[in-house]
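Bug: token stream looks shifted between consecutive jobs. Job 1:
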Amino acid sequence: MNGQNRKNIQIGSEVYIILKKDQRSGKRTKGIVKDFLTKKRFHPHGIKVRLQDGRVGRVQEVIDK
């Protein structure tokens, strides 16, 4: 699932995000969602989240389990 719709993401979900510094390269980082930083239900570049390890980025993909 993509990370543009907030309804696809839950606290504790395993996701791939793109950190601000990696936007040009497109390098993705895997982690678990701690909290949401985007208030809207939809964002074209991905919902911004904070991972449990403190890193912040926009969700590119939600990993299905």
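Job 2, same session, no restart:
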Amino acid sequence: MITIVGIGPGDREYMTEQAASAVRNARVLLGGGRVLRAIGSDSGARLVELPADGMADTLVALLEDETRLGEVTLAVSGDPGFYSLARRVMARFGRDWVTLIPGVSCMQIMAARLCKSWAGVSSATLHGRARPDIGSLASKLLSSPALVLLFGEPGKIADDIGWLCSDERIKSAGAALGWDLGLPGERITEAATLGEIDTEARGGRLALLWLEKNGALAADVSPAASFARRGVIPDEWFEREEGVPMTKSFARAVAISLLSPLRGARILEIGSGTGAMTVELARAVGEHGRVSDVESSRAALELTRRNISRAGVAARVDITEGRAPEVMPEGRYDAAFVGGHGERVEDVLSAVWKRLEPGGRMLLTSITPQTTSRALKCIGDTTPAAGIWRAHSSYGRGAGGDWMMLGNNPVDFIWGDK
């Protein structure tokens, strides 16, 4: 008997319990090198690595030999039903000899990231295959909610997209290109049309292209869902109250960049204000991460709760009422953002530093020279791995058919690495 196990993208958190059990209990485990490196330590099985070239042909021969000795387990990335080696195995051995254990496919992850349903979506692959007829791809695009293309070698993707753009119906489709979906290096870029997609903004090994006709990819959905595919949320989206400070969008963008990567991380935030930065941190850590917030103002707390609820990330945030450093949540953290500190900058930074895991980063924002000077000295005395950026930004406003630029206050970003 042959068991084909879908292990998902390769991150252990995406493996089902059934898949993990099959891997642990395997007699012999076959798979590509990347797959075996991702899960091999979980199994006491004899590991047989499939070659990168000619994998499908080699696999059938190996299975014929191994099945004479007993049951065989084949581990494949993603889901066995989504362009995997399972089709070749089923064709050779038949369903009476094969058991499939499903996994999470890159298409499912992409649909989730885009807040889309994958019901009725058409798909095709260029991964180890010749290019299909481009007219048939255009027909699939026009007759289904979306067309998903699985790409092959990263170095050929720009050429493949150029080829796709030779058909105007495909070139004008809304596009999202996802790299290494479900892995730490995941990256998704979007464009109004495929002809505008940035093929250089890539994550690494495997890419998936999601296409929708007539600009459907940018269709209006709920505010939280629409921003889930873009950069930081615009300032005007948040509920505001007089006297409650907010970290502006450009500062949030810089802060998230300086703290990245954050997916799955535990983050400590001191001072939430309106909750704008809390929302961005919660979006960045994903469903398996956690944000612990400390805020002393009752008005700010209520505003934060409303904004994280509107953004759909409240389940990822723990809020503690009180003033740091006297009130601090328990636990250790992968990163920390200090947006509110009052007059006790050094005391707050010292308390936060103690909560930081080795390898973590503490980041503070400042808009006054005195706070910047004190924070730099405190962090610089604590760690040699300190740094500062000063950002001057402007935003555009329409003015009689033209645009004028209005300046924001400069913001200092001061950090230290543990």
